[in-house]
Amino acid sequence: MLVKDQLNRTLQFQHPPNRIISLVPSQTELLVDLGLRTNIVGVTKFCVHPKELRKEVAIVGGTKMVDFDKIRSLHPDIIICNKEENTKEIVEQCTEIAPVWVSDIYTVEDSMEMISNLGEIFSVKEMASEISKKIDFEMKQFSNWLENRSARNVAYLIWKKPYMAAGSNTFINAILRLNKFENIFSEANSRYPEIELEDLKAADLILLSSEPYPFKEIDVQELKKALQTEVFLVDGEYFSWYGSRLKQAFSYFKTLH
User: Any idea what the CATH number is for the domain that residue 71 is in?
Assistant: First the structure.
């Protein structure tokens, strides 16, 4: 079986891979939802959904640093990575151990393609199709619900000291657009630009993500006082996890409007 990943790299398998290592939290959750939980032998310390999984399988490191000897000892048939979350070095070294399938996701359409591709690789096409159909249905329902609402100028912050925002060519930016949130940093030169408080004055709504920096209520009050504008804490998983979590994302987004 010949398959391509989202970097257009070709992988070859004699049969559907059985032993899986996932180095991407959102894709780990997706693999479980595809019915592949018992096939997962290794994950990262950030693979928090489902929460019991890390007690059942080996922890091989984080998303930027992994234990290659531990990965090798698990004898994986496939390793699942992502272009943004994992480094080029990790992908290259893991390729010496087992075939590495890499996702590259900027839009919901990219996510749907990833779900379909993994369904094909692991011979769970029907389950993959069900997940994709659910996401598509929820997205269309949300779009209809949002139709008569006005757009808002928004900043989505992912880090503090220095402040950093989601810019263009990111999955977060695509999700903001689906919410009719006009990202004030969509024209920035960097995908995740460093910004100053002064730069946030163009926004009438500031969203503070729960990840990767764990913004808290004290940060909300600090920015409200400094800028005299609306500031919300938001669940970053619904804005940046591009797997099956999207099934619940659109119901969550309604609570922000």
Answer: 3.40.50.1980
Question: Is residue 139 one of the residues assigned to a domain?
Answer: no
Spatial separation of the C-alpha atoms in residues 79 and 27, rounded to whole Å: 11
Contact 128, 116 (CB under 8 A): yes
Helices and strands of the chain, counted as H and E runs: 10, 13
The answer to whether position 86 is within a domain reads yes
Backbone CA torsion sign across 133, 138, 141, 146:
negative
CA 80-81-84 angle, to 5 degrees, is: 160
Q: In the structure encoding, which two tokens stand for residue 89, read together?
A: 């070095």
Determine the Cα–Cα distance for residues 201 and 126; give it in Å rounded to an integer. Answer: 48
Structural domain range at position 158:
152-254
Domain count within the chain: 2
What is the model's pTM?
0.95
6 and 96 housed in the same domain: yes
Q: Which residues are CB-contacts of 226 (< 8 A; sequence separation ≥ 6)?
A: 197
CB atoms within 10 A of CB 51: 8
CA distance 255 to 2: 43
Of 190, 188, 192, the residue nearest 202 (C-alpha): 188
Cα 111–Cα 116–Cα 120 angle in degrees, nearest 5: 145
Task: Give the tens place of pLDDT for each residue, 83-131.
Answer: 999 999 999 999 999 999 999 999 999 999 999 999 999 999 999 999 9
* DSSP tag of 189: S
